[in-house]
Amino acid sequence: TTFQGADHYKSGGVQFAARSADAALASFDEEKLETYEVGIKSRLLNDRLQLNGAIFQYTYEDQQVQSIVLVSANTVVLTENAGDSTVKGLEVEAVARLSENLDVGFNYTYLDAVFDEFMSATGSQAGNRLAFAPEHAFNIDATYRHSLGTVGDIALSGNYSWKDDHFFDFENNPGAFQESYGLVNLAAWWDLPDGHTRLRVFCDNCGDQTYLTNVVIFPEGPPGGGGRKSFGLLQRYGIELSYQF
């Protein structure tokens, strides 16, 4: 069983690459963070099962967050201080050797991440979810290995990862929202008996899931509006030949 508590500090500053005097004068304060974590790490069943877990809480004071706003008719990236925010959660991880050839793993994360108090340049954000903070997320993977004797070793692996819906900005803008999604990755490889060469076939995002990795919303005004969306890789498959020196 482990317990950790710590205080963290990030200094304040002035706006980066300000495009106007008004923006340059909009300084921001230091950020303070208190972290607490209670966890357990264990090995069971003659080291065939590894089970880890942790409960944590992060408390921010004057958390530094960024947004794109209009200042004197110029679009600028503004760093602001959120009054207070709290992140509570837990993590569970398990790795098991089910047989001499088969390993499976599982991990799960729960997050309750909200702004308790935050008056931004565009209004109150209290109660909004923090960016990039899905409430639930988990990952399952399995790897099977088999020896072919004098001709090498083969292995098969599969992975499924899932993320709950989440936002990419602190305003929780509908345009910066990603619905929950899951990804499937599969691979198989042959390690030749020379101990250096591997032939691998793979499929990433086998279900050809379309999903966002980031969204930036531009403010409405003289420069325009709209935004920019970044997408994750679509279905990808191929064959790799590698040699390790």
Spell out the blueprint of helices and strands.
Blueprint (H helix, E strand, L loop, with lengths): L1 E9 L10 H5 L5 E14 L4 E23 L2 E24 L4 E16 L1 E2 L2 E2 L11 E12 L5 E11 L2 E2 L9 E2 L2 E11 L5 E8 L7 E6 L9 E5 L4 E8 L2
Antiparallel strand pairs: 1-2, 2-3, 3-4, 4-5, 5-8, 6-7, 8-9, 9-12, 10-11, 12-13, 13-16, 14-15
Give a structural overview.
The protein is mostly beta strands. It contains one helix and 16 strands. A hairpin with a 5-residue loop joins strand 8 and strand 9. It is globular and about 75 Å long. The mean pLDDT is 90.
In N-to-C order, the SSE pattern is EHEEEEEEEEEEEEEEE
Distance between the termini: 41 Å
Number of strands: 16
Number of helices: 1
Uncertain stretches: none
The level of helicity is under 10%
Strand content: over 45%
- Report mean pLDDT, rounded to a whole number: 90
Which word captures the global form?
A: globular
What is the gyration radius calculated from CA atoms?
23 Å
Widest beta sheet: strand line-up: 1-2-3-4-5-8-9-12-13-16
Q: How would a textbook summarize the main sheet?
A: 10 strands, antiparallel
* Helix/sheet category: mainly beta
